[in-house]
Amino acid sequence: MAGIETYLKNILSAIYGKDVRQSIHDSIKQCYYDGKVGATDLEARDRAAAAEARMDTFTKLKNGSTTGDAELTDIRVGHDGKTYSSAGEAVREQIRDTHVIEVGTKKPTRDNTQVWINPNEVAEFCIPEIKDYDINPEDTWSSTKIDSKISELFNEVFYIPKVRNYYDPSLQTDDTIEKHYYVDGAPYETTQFDSAYNATALFEIEPNTKYTIGLVPKFGDADLPWGFATSGIFFYDEYKEYISAEKVGTFTTPVNAKYARFNFAMTNGIFLSVVNQRCMLVKGASLPDEYTAYEKLKSVKNIISGMSSVSRVAYSVEEDSITLSSKYSATQDIQFVLRRKGGNNLFDFDRVYLFDNSEQIPSVHAAMDSALFLSGGGDWHAPFQIAAVNNVNGDQVSNSTYFTGGNHQYNNTGSGSTPTASHVKLEFIADGATLYSGDTGYASTIQMVWINNVQGNNTTKADGSGREILQERHKMFFDGYEFRTNVELVPLEDIICKLWYGFQIFNDAYENVQYLDGAYRGPKDFSTDTESGDSTTSLMRLYDRNGNNAEVQVDTTFDLGKRQHFAGTNSMFSATYGKSYCTIVNKAVTMNKDCVYSLRGIYRFKSSIAR
């Protein structure tokens, strides 16, 4: 027996009424048999109905009608069985329903265009109901409804960072935690362990989900908040009734879990402050190598709505390099490349580009080499003339004027020798969220955090194994207008600092310099060495005839910026070889182990043409 598909094809190919009727009879009979064995073929029913509609038109043909008459009549019946008044109307109306996407800069004029994408307008995505920007209340989807649905979607869709810490320290305070040792989800029967362990307040978790909890970095020998206790984390249902517990760091929550809490081991020094600074709760089976703070999820709507007005910085991260772009003027972007570089492979400014861009937001794309404005392969954050007070064991103790750190190797130059400093840490943060290699986007503020350890010029070794005696901790913030840079110097042992220039800048792209609050304030070119003429200058400006400006500023109200360890008249100065400097220390000062010595300042790049 032939199948239903064969009979349906017969219906659609039959021309004369007799043949059509026989085909319909056979199809219905086959559907009956199929139904008897439990088969349901809704598509066959639809096609049979359409075929029946075709048959009705054929039975109305006059005697003597030709095959051509039958075909013209057949065209009037649509795919859904609807009969149109003419063959032309049938064709036009059915083509109208064809789904067409049109890409172009001009508004579509064809009625059958279903989607219009304008490649010149990133945010422009139009559909017929709103392509003329008028609301049609008869449409299934009017522009009002579409706007409402998009708004609803954007409010519900969230940006989730690659590594998310689900432990929220703001919920855990001295007023909210349980000041008891917990066992089986409740305080232990006596208070004998309450001075050694406390438990957190309840926090929400997802059911049947694998999590890992731990301290990052670990505290002493303990990598779990509860140290080595036999009772760790506890799970509760939506009514806060105890379910079960775990003492290992990786676990799967019960299927009916809604809340959790865990003990923390004060007996091991893991107080609440330590938990709140180091605890991470992540989904999956492993913790990241470095701590990531808890961050509330941001809706897509909030991220996108702030891009044009608030997010002034475009960023792109690649390994140990970050590229930052912002508006320099209405028609240009300025782009900074910062990376690990030089003889000691330390993080700092590297290159500055200027390129055309008339859009209101900066470009995330890397600048062409032809757009290079300033090449600063050397030091911006200065190296040091420092020496150890005790245990002097370097290979070139007599070279007391050699610099270490920055771009200065054992031979006091940027190459051809061995390092005098090492990289400890580098982190990029966009509006509170840690960035990783491959990340690109927009932010209102980018934070760069890096730490270096530096040898003394009397502890360096020719093979690069010299003793590190100073740690420099940097935090620099860029908001699209200026780089605010904070430096903390923390001696790893007692040291003597003899000379430190703090902040430096390459001046070869500019024509003149002014020491704006110095004794010598008038403009000076770079044909000769110049200085500010006093000991307290806080601001110098570099500029050229094309309206390009750079400013370097020292906070003279804070710690080392007060220049209490400086004597002379060159608190700021410029050299003919293409560098300008801020002198912070030039008379020997003893800096004691573990004390913190700080400097704050600003790098600012701007155009005299309005942004």
Strand order of the largest sheet: 23-22-25-26-27-38-34-33-30-31
Mind telling me the C-alpha Rg? Answer: 37 Å
Helix content: 10-25%
Poorly predicted tracts of residues: 32-44, 121-156, 300-309
Strand element count = 38
Please, what is the oligomeric state? Answer: single chain
CA(first)-CA(last) distance: 80 Å
- Mean pLDDT figure: 82
Which of globular, elongated, flat, extended, rod-shaped describes the shape?
A: flat
State the major sheet.
Answer: 10 strands, antiparallel
Helical run tally: 8
Give me the secondary-structure category: alpha+beta
Sheet-strand content, in percent, reads 25-35%
Question: Would you kindly provide a written description of the structure presented here, covering whatever features stand out?
Answer:
This protein has 611 residues and is of the alpha+beta class. It is 15% helix and 32% strand. The chain is built from 8 helices and 38 strands. It has a 10-stranded antiparallel beta sheet, with no helix packed on it. A hairpin with a 4-residue loop joins strand 33 and strand 34. Helix 2 runs antiparallel to helix 3 (42-59). The N and C termini lie far apart (80 Å). Residues 32-44, 121-156 and 300-309 have low confidence and may be disordered.
Give the SSE map:
Elements: H1 4-13, H2 17-36, H3 42-59, H4 67-75, H5 87-96, E1 100-103, E2 113-117, E3 125-126, H6 143-156, E4 158-159, E5 182-183, E6 186-187, E7 197-199, E8 203-204, E9 210-215, E10 233-236, E11 242-246, E12 250-252, E13 259-265, H7 272-278, E14 279-283, E15 298-299, H8 300-305, E16 313-318, E17 321-327, E18 332-341, E19 346-356, E20 372-375, E21 384-388, E22 421-430, E23 433-434, E24 440-443, E25 446-455, E26 468-478, E27 482-491, E28 495-500, E29 504-506, E30 512-515, E31 524-525, E32 530-531, E33 539-543, E34 548-554, E35 572-575, E36 579-582, E37 589-591, E38 597-607
Helix pairs in contact: 1-2, 1-3, 2-3, 4-5
